[in-house]
């Protein structure tokens, strides 16, 4: 199969009935970047900036951050890179940032919450990103957004830094696109307001599922207990697609779901046209896409979504079998 996947690399990522699907990569370190061209990806859909912080014994300086980001942008060449601002806290702790004891770290002081409380941290990172993307496009998204006001504050920080660099005669990106992740269920009821403000959205289904199902993603007793192909998450994801389409905002999903061919198939069926995944998932997901009649799937799946049932998994597997979709 490895050989088969390698041969798929240069084929366009297009379904059997001619619909183009954007396949993006999740990355976090320089070593991941060799994979961008290898895997035939359309870009980096999620660059997890916290990894540099996690492998470092002290806070990475602005210079070090800038160098990493620049190398990432260089390695991607013409392809877009979506950086995610620091997603620290929860299951990703840093020894040199004291968070104090937390009873429920997943629900605690983390990600954009920490960044807005410690703006110097975020400002440094933003400055490093603006420098690194000078003369090019910068795409940046914020993790764990819970209310729209957090996006406003983060966007103001970016704008202030941009103005600051301009005033001091630095070259800055020719375009700055700002987005957020959809990882906290509260955002599902603020989609209209959010869509009016952001340049793009990306669903973090790992966290969104954890919070929807109240099931700790790191606890093996409960992590796999509830099905990501059940009506509840699929309906929630469908409302995200509808809101993004209505507002004309580009949408991606970058959780692990995107890398499982059966789940990726379901995502396309409910309307996603861009998904971001680990490099190793690209081959299997592409094989699924090339063998899929997406219109047929969509015509069947969307009405099914409204029907009461525990999970759509078996029916999705049956659809794939009956229509020769490679899973
Ligand atoms: C997610 O939550 O789905 C996600 C992509 O972010 P992370 O796995 O880094 O929390
Ligand atoms: Mg997450």
TrEMBL record:
Organism domain of life: Bacteria
Localisation per UniProt entry: Cytoplasm
Family assignment from sequence similarity: Belongs to the PEP-utilizing enzyme family.
Name recorded for this polypeptide: phosphoenolpyruvate--protein phosphotransferase
Organism: Lutibaculum baratangense AMV1
Residues of the full protein shown: 427 to 753 of 753
């Amino acid at each position: 199969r490895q050989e088969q996947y390698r041969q798929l690399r240069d084929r366009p990522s297009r379904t059997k009935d001619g619909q183009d699907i954007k396949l993006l990569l999740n990355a976090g370190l320089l070593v991941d970047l060799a994979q961008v061209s290898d895997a035939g990806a359309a870009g980096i859909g999620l660059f997890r900036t916290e990894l540099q912080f996690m492998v470092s014994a002290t806070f990475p300086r602005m210079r070090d951050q800038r160098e990493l980001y620049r190398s990432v942008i260089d390695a991607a060449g013409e392809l877009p890179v979506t950086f995610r601002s620091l997603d620290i806290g929860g299951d990703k702790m840093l020894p040199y940032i004291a968070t104090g004891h937390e009873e429920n770290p997943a629900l605690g002081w983390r990600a954009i919450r920490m960044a807005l409380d410690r703006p110097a941290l975020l400002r440094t990172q933003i400055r490093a990103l603006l420098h690194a993307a000078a003369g090019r496009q910068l795409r940046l998204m914020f993790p764990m957004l819970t209310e729209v006001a957090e996006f406003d504050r983060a966007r103001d920080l970016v704008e202030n830094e941009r103005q600051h660099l301009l005033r001091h005669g630095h070259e800055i990106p020719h375009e700055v696109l700002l987005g957020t992740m959809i990882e906290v269920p509260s955002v599902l009821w603020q989609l209209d307001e959010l869509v009016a403000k952001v340049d793009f959205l990306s669903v973090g289904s790992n966290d969104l599922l954890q919070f929807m199902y109240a099931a700790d993603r790191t606890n093996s007793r409960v992590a796999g207990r509830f099905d990501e192909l059940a009506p509840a998450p699929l309906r929630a994801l469908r409302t995200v697609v509808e809101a993004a389409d209505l507002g004309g905002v580009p949408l991606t999903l970058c959780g692990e779901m995107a890398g499982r061919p059966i789940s990726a198939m379901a995502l396309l069926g409910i309307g996603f046209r861009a998904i971001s995944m680990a490099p190793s998932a690209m081959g299997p997901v592409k094989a699924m896409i090339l063998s899929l009649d997406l219109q047929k799937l969509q015509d069947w799946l969307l009405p099914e979504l409204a029907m009461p049932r525990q999970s759509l998994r078996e029916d999705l597997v049956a659809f794939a079998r009956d229509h020769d979709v490679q899973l």
